[in-house]
Amino acid sequence: MPLRYRIRRELPRIASVAISVAILAVLFGPVLLLALFSFNDSPIISLPWAGFTTHWYEVAWSDAEAREAVTHSLTVAIVVMVLSVVLGTMAAWGLTRLRFRGRAAVAGLHGSVLVVPWLLIGVAGLMFFSRVEVPLSLQTIGVMQLVVTFPLVVAIVSAGLVRFPRSLEEAAIDLGASQWQMMRHVVLPQLAPALAASAIFAFSWSFNNFEVSFFTGGFEQTFPVWVFSVLRHSQNLPMVNAISTVIAAVQVVLVLGAWRLMRRLSAGANDEELADIMVGGLR
Amino acid sequence: MEAATVSTAAARPRTSRWRALLPPFTFVTPPTALLVVFFLVPMAILAVIAFEWGPLSGSSGFTLSNFTSIIDDPLYRRVTITTFEIATIAMLAQLVVAVPVAYVLAYKAGRFELPLLLMMVLADELNPMVRIYAWRMLLGREGIINSGLMSLGVIDHPIDALLFSKFAVIVVLSTSYVTYTVIPIYAAMKAINSGLFEAARDLGAGWFTTFRRVLLPLITPGIFVALLLVYIPLFTDFASPTLVGGTSGYMLGQSVNDLVLESGNLNAGAALSLMMLVASALFAVVAYKLAKIRQLDT
């Protein structure tokens, strides 16, 4: 009887833990298994376990196409990240702090990009570049990725700008600060966590982007396009496991690093505000 | 700018100089121009191509034939049904999972709330191709689930329905987008005044009544936001069905790809894309309206 009573009392807690563990298992389990099988000494990915090897990492490292694809993705992602943060912050500032004719239309234009499926933006980009006779390349991938990525920064930074009162900026100007000083000492410190979040999301969105890169890319493939074409034409390959494991590990480190940076930048913020920034423009 | 009217006369010249130095268009013009040239113009070109005759047809000018050839084709009708079937089941599966997960996050996780939320975001930031590949490895004919079950002696021959099926597409799509389903519902739950739950309990409501009469109405706006964010990418997905769907999980996104890149029929591809765009826009408007109206009600 006492045990039953205890179980009953603990039931909500047990259920909470079970739900959390289950969702994490579904989200991360397959990727962890993928990593595990990158060390399996067999060209076929299946059980039983055939022994430990790092052979597939050597194969992956010496694969010129794979290396090229990762390099392309990194290059594009860094450029898209920087330009997205700059353009996105400009737009967010203009849309939240300034008044001008057509503001609602401009805001709607930026918002609509986030709703239109990437597949259709990719197809439209392909048709556009063929009409204006621009050959597809990493540059066309980059510009189309920028188009779909920087509106996310607009959403995250706008949410950040709405959160703190503009009276502080007005006070700074009234106290004799130049516009640059006001931006540097009042706006930037408050906006820093949102900017850090934007940068990491923009990088991920660009690096992970498949549809837009697939349709607007030429012979130079990005990493997701390369994986797609390999998987489409062949069986599963342990070499892909090896590369995917490295990529996933780096992404985990990047996101956790960005998270710590955000915490540092927003020393005064409570958990509520941090959660807010993290879920970004989704609200 | 209200600042100028409320601040003192001495400050006014400075405030107006601030405005004069950097007028609004210096901030919004570059991003807006980028969107006009590389988003609106491509969309307009897509729309024009959808109403043009193909280069091989020998005719020129305006036509609706690209649309009618798709609408009249039973193949596309079947693909459309499959697409919405997969997208709807995946959406419902995600909602069934997301409500309890959001509930745990919002009310039960305590000090684990932020780490769990971070893990959800992290899962979303993993490369989608890596995720799709991981599932393919698990579900395949010689994959980990089949080979594992066989070596344990649970089954004699592999379960073929795991991969290259609607089931596989639903699993992959649901796990790909579930973060975006959880977060708006979680946000809606965080906004609820917890006193309401106490009131419900004090008035004698059981957990199910509390769920149905208190929680569910209040998180409905969050559910509509989730629908808006997730359903549109779901029904236009192209990578997942290509890699795990086989012939039975063939979706509209693949039709667009096949028309545009495989058979080179840009006009039909543009027409199909345009129809999907209109469907997305209608869906977005309805979900947005419902989310707004529900918010006003509460």
Layout of helices and strands:
The complex is a heterodimer of chains A (283) and B (298).
Chain A: H1 2-37, H2 55-61, H3 64-97, H4 103-115, H5 118-131, H6 138-163, H7 167-174, H8 179-208, H9 211-216, H10 223-233, H11 238-265, H12 271-278
Helix pairs in contact in A: 1-11, 2-11, 3-6, 3-8, 3-10, 4-6, 6-8, 7-8, 8-11
Chain B: H1 3-6, H2 12-21, H3 24-50, H4 65-71, H5 74-108, H6 113-125, H7 128-139, H8 144-151, H9 166-190, H10 195-202, H11 207-235, H12 239-244, H13 252-262, H14 266-297
Short description:
The complex is a heterodimer of chains A (283) and B (298). Chain A has 283 residues and is an all-alpha fold.
What would you note in describing this structure?
The complex is a heterodimer of chains A (283) and B (298). By secondary structure, chain A is mainly α. Chain A has one domain: MetI-like fold (Orthogonal Bundle). Chain A has helices spanning 2-37, 55-61, 64-97, 103-115, 118-131, 138-163, 167-174, 179-208, 211-216, 223-233, 238-265, 271-278. In chain A, helix 6 packs across helix 8 and helix 8 packs antiparallel against helix 11. The radius of gyration of chain A is 23 Å and the shape is globular. Chain B is mainly alpha-helical and 298 residues long. Chain B has one domain: MetI-like (MetI-like fold, Orthogonal Bundle), CATH 1.10.3720. Helices cover 76% and strands 0% of the residues of chain B. Chain B has 14 helices and no strands. In chain B, helix 4 packs across helix 14 (266-297) and helix 6 (113-125) runs antiparallel to helix 9 (166-190). The chains are: A mainly alpha (283), B mainly alpha (298).
